[in-house]
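Good morning,

Attaching, inline, the backbone tokens for the sequence recovery test we're adding to the shared suite. The designed sequence is right after.
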């Protein structure tokens, strides 16, 4: 079901004490919007974060997951392991995973399948690089990133998919897509899904924008009709900023 979501991707930040401090700071700030709130701390802090948010209107996501059920994959984490500590949402396909860890869409399609087979929700990230936009290839790139990793799914699977459009040039750079650029791409994404599946599925899917969302620009970006929320990096590490973004709806 389409809903407003603000998710914080903490990336490789926060140790155990910092995770607990950040969550206790989040608790102190009233949530005044109807947005669903998700935080994605690093693996080592997922369990303590899950315990710390009990009773709060916050859920926990992992930042990545291996596609196999178990086995000789040193350093990796499976869906079962995440579920055993209560984590039912996973971010897949983040541009940093693609760029630094070589994750390609055939692998991402496998990871998506594993997550869905385990009744998890996937936040699937994608977005063009600056050179793609400069060559006016951003729509084509985004179309491929979505279709290669997700268009093998049947219609029913889409209820567990959240999309996160994160133009690489806007991540951690302080440069955001303008609200109109975000809207233009989100509308394109919805049309791409409508063409492949149905208008109903396209209308129901939640599409987040990510890339330098801050308290001072969130409201304008979220006011766009096809933008259903944000995937927040840097600003999710400060409780006040993150909650200001949550309350920007
Ligand atoms: P920033 O908000 O720091 O630009 O990061 C966005 C992001 O990559 C969220 O996944």
């Amino acid at each position: 079901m389409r809903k407003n979501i603000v998710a914080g991707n903490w990336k490789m930040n926060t140790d155990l004490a910092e995770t607990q401090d950040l969550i206790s700071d989040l608790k102190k700030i009233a949530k005044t919007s109807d947005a669903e709130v998700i935080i994605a701390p690093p693996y080592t802090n997922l369990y303590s974060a899950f315990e710390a948010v009990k009773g709060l209107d916050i859920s926990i996501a992992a930042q990545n997951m291996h596609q196999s059920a178990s086995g000789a994959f040193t350093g990796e984490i499976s869906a079962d392991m995440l579920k055993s500590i209560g984590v039912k949402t996973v971010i897949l396909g983040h541009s940093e995973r693609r760029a630094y860890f070589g994750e390609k869409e055939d692998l991402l399609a496998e990871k998506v399948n594993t997550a869905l087979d385990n009744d998890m929700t996937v936040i699937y990230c994608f977005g063009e690089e600056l050179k793609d936009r400069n060559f006016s290839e951003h729509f084509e790139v985004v179309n491929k990133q979505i279709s290669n990793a997700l268009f093998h799914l049947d219609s029913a699977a889409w209820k567990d998919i959240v999309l996160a459009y994160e133009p690489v040039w806007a991540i951690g750079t302080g440069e955001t897509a303008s609200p109109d650029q975000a809207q233009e791409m989100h509308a394109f994404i919805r049309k791409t899904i409508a063409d492949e599946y149905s208008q109903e599925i396209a209308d129901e899917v939640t599409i987040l924008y990510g890339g330098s969302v801050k308290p001072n620009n969130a409201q304008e970006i979220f006011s766009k009709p096809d933008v259903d929320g944000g995937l927040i990096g840097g600003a999710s590490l400060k409780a006040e900023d993150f909650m200001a973004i949550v309350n920007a709806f």
